[in-house]
Amino acid sequence: MTRPRLSTLAIIVAALAVVPLAGLSGSLLNLMIFMMIIALAAQGWNILGGYAGLSSFGHAAFFGAGAYAMVVLQTRFGVNAWIALVIGIALGALVGAFIGFLSFRSGLKGSYFALITLAFAEVARILANSTNFTGGAAGILLKLQTGLPYLQFADRRYFLLIALGFVAIGLLVSWWLEHSRFGAYLVALRENEQAAQALGVDVFAVKMKAIAISGALTAAAGCLYAQNYLFIDANVAFGSWISIEALFAAIVGGSGTVIGPLLGAIVLLGLGELTKMVSGGIPGMDLLVFGVILVLSVAYSPNGLVMLMKSLGLRAPAKAREA
Amino acid sequence: MTRHQKSLSRRTVLKSSVALTSMLAAPGLLRAEPAPVKVGLLQPISGAFALDGDLAKIGAEFAIKEINDAGGIKALGGAKLELVIGDSRSNAEAGAQATEELQSAGVAAVLGGFASGITLTATQTAARYDLPFVVDCAVADTITDRGLKNTFRFNPNFSMATAVALKNLVKLNDDAGKPIKTVAIVHEDGLFGSGLAKIMQEKLPPLGFQIVETIAHPTPARDMTNVVLRLRALNPDLIVPSHYFNEFVLMARTLQQQRVRPKGIYAVFGGAASSYRFVNEFPEAAQGVMDCNHWGDPKSPITAKLRETVTAAGKFYAYNTPINYSLVKVFAQAVEKAGSADRAKIIEALAANEFDSGIMPYGKTKFDAKGQNSSALPLNTQVQGKDIKVIYPAEYADAKPVFPING
User: Fold this and answer.
1) Distance between terminal CA atoms of chain A?
2) Measuring CA to CA, which residue among B299, B273, B288, B321 is closest to residue B401?
3) Is the pLDDT of residue B2 over 50?
4) What mean pLDDT is predicted for residues B247-252?
5) In which order are the strands placed within the sheet that holds B37-43?
6) Is some CB atom of chain B closer than 8 A to the CB atom of A24?
7) Is B279 in contact with B388 (CB distance < 8 Å)?
8) B320-353: buried (b, 16+ CB within 10 Å) or exposed (e) per residue?
């Protein structure tokens, strides 16, 4: 389960792609799109936090970079939505490299790295909130215009498929990490950085690559968010909510695993929606139920749902792995 | 909506016997009941703005009951209105999601929105389905600037409200013999606070006011001591605050503690200035605070009734209740004029007609080409004793302004 085959991934993606064809209601479709966006952000977080062991509290910085690039390029410079998407993703990688360069050069890790990423995201939020270029506190709106060139569709299933496509790329990247030398380097420096360095791993370069890939994936999630909701402001794009959603989904699903972030996003958001349905008319009750379930699930599967499924399932050979 | 005839099943018999019994109990209603018109109310029922959502719901429910008791929608053979609540959970994604749910529930229109961020995403979601959306107190100008055919706003927007606020501030100052020369602006750094501060910085100096300082703070802020100490050093004649409820209360209390006594506190859409909770909990700090805000007509008898209902529910009255009451009333008139619960016809009716504004002081509501109610008007209020009184404009005022408050 922790090292799925490519065919398993293909089946998961195909299954998710078939669901919207079954004729979902608008609200379910909307929920699925949101799930995919969070899954993608969590996949980005997972590269850095899960595989490389560099937990970030500030993935909002990448998410927001993507979201703002998407909206600012389209509204201010009239750039085509698809090109804006590519630039947004590239910008995410660049922001990742920037933050990575500054913090890895000074050898920050553990809670210090978490705090510095949080600080970067907050600085970005305050800047975006106060400069006119980003629309200031009023945020920016994208015009509602459907059609392929605008990356907005009257039938939202197309958008879901695009989001799913990105999630599939995220799965592939994680799969590649599990099977490549680069991924092995990441795990090595997570487990013992000094040992990895002693064995000749260029720790700085590996970390830089990891944070750039991580930033790019999470920025893609930001782009899709902006394109789906057509409105962002500083608190939406750079707010701590997305940093939390991203790390939450990855950790609950199983950090450092291929399908953990996707599983986590689906379960968390699905659970949220489910509790909303069963909790009746009492306002806020669903959030309470959700909180309790969350505490229980973290208490009983601290290594993530993927690990829980594994231990419940086919008693795989004891491959002790701390996540 | 049509009802299909089905063969007689046990359930049908049960249902009809229940219906028959109720009809016998109320012989005046002995006629076929037309399908109800579902109306969606999008409000923050949970989350940071839950108090506001709750107050809005009370207003809307009150209006629905009033309309239904008076025989429902006449143009649809007395069809009843049925309220469907969408909880926006005080955030933008959940607002879009709740709008989708209202759409699935088959509502004829969505009313409400409350905050600008939520309203911006929710109205766009509704636009995908050509679902009419009448916005309540969300004030961002951009809401009606996007050319969305389905979107209308009942309340004044930011520009309209600040224009009125400035006009009345000048009048207030002139009437009292121009006691105000210096002004300090204290604002939260979000959309609402910084937007307002920017307008004030532009518009106040040409009107003869000198701005001595503009102080920004984040929301939430837990301590206002530094801000207030700065104000004490500057000693401005007037403080223009713009923040949300908690920060407003905090600042007013700290001003009181530090014995900073400006000649006036003049808020625009002040977070607490027109809240009975503030007045009840901190009457001394609230004394004399002025606000320019959404406010129901104090002279309408329904205002008193709404206040009673809210107070009886153990809550503090605020503007959300009269606004949403009036919003439902406007919607009901639109359905009457459209003669149908069809969405396109309702949009057409909203765009083409004039409406009574319920208990809001708007005279006849008329939506302009952008969907903004061009008659919308904020009122100036002041905390006097244990009450919030309207001081401007004269036709709605129920008290004279007390100004300057500290000699």
Assistant:
1) 14
2) B288
3) no
4) 91
5) B81-87, B37-43, B109-112, B133-135, B151-153
6) no
7) yes
8) bbbbbbbbbbbbbbbbbbbebbebebbbbbbbeb
Buried/exposed code over B24-57 (b: 16+ C-beta within 10 A; e: otherwise): eeeeeeeeeebebbbbbbbbbbbbbbbbbbbbbb
State which residue of chain A sits closest to B90, comparing Cα positions.
A284
Residues on chain B touching A283 (C-beta within 8 angstroms): 45-46, 50, 87
ipTM above 0.95, yes or no: no
> Which residue shows structure tokens 């149908």?
B340
Distances (CA, A) of B361 to B290, B365, B376: 18, 10, 8
pLDDT of B63 over the 70 cut: yes
Cβ of residue A245 closer than 8 Å to a chain B Cβ: no
Nearest chain B residue to A286 by CA: give it. B46
- Who among B47, B50, B104 is closest to A25 (CB)? B104
Give me the architecture of the B34-156+300-366 domain, per CATH. 3-Layer(aba) Sandwich (3.40)
Q: What distance in Å separates the CA atoms of residue A38 and residue A31, rounded to the nearest whole number?
A: 11
B 176-215: CB under 8 A from A: 189-195
Condensed to tens digits (0 to 9), the pLDDT of residues B295-349 reads 999 999 999 999 999 999 999 999 999 999 999 999 999 999 999 999 999 999 9
B257-297 tens-digit pLDDT: 999 999 999 999 886 778 899 999 999 999 999 999 999 99
pTM: 0.81
Q: Which residues of B touch A143 (CB under 8 A)?
A: 146
Can you point out the beta strands (E) in A85-238?
140-141, 231-232
Residues of A in contact with B92 (CB under 8 A): 229, 231, 236
Confidence of residue B245 (pLDDT cuts 50, 70, 90): confident
Q: A21: Cβ–Cβ under 8 A, 6 or more apart, which residues?
A: A157
Q: Within an 8 Å CB–CB cutoff, is residue B160 touching chain A?
A: no
A229–chain B nearest CA distance, Å: 6
Contact residues on chain B for A236, CB-CB shorter than 8 A: 92, 117
Q: In chain A, which residues have pLDDT < 70?
A: 1-2, 279-284, 313-323
pLDDT score at B28: 47
If DSSP codes are grouped into helix, strand and coil, which group holds residue A161? helix
**What is the residue range of A168's domain?**
8-239
Residue A57 domain-assigned (yes or no): yes
For β-strands B379-384 and B387-392, DSSP reports them as: antiparallel
Chain A residues in contact with B91 by the CB 8 A cut-off are 241
- On whether any CB of chain B is under 8 Å from the CB of A101, the answer is no
In a domain, A184, yes or no: yes
Intervals of CATH 3.40.50.2300 along chain B? 34-156+300-366, 159-293+379-392
pLDDT digits (tens, 9 = 90+) for A19-65: 888 877 888 898 999 999 999 999 999 999 999 999 999 999 999 99
Residue A1 domain-assigned (yes or no): no
Contact in structure between B96 and B125 (CB atoms under 8 Å)? yes
Is residue A266 in a domain? no
The distance of B208 to chain A (nearest Cα, Å) reads 27
Exposed e or buried b per residue across A57-87, where buried means at least 16 C-beta atoms within 10 angstroms of its C-beta: bbbbbbbbbbbbbbbbbbeeeebebeebbeb
Q: Provide the 8-state DSSP code for B101.
A: H
CATH number of B159-293+379-392: 3.40.50.2300
Indicate the number of domains in chain A: 1
- Contact across the interface for A233 and B117, Cβ inside 8 Å: yes
Q: Which of B384, B400, B406, B381 is nearest to B263 (CA)?
A: B406
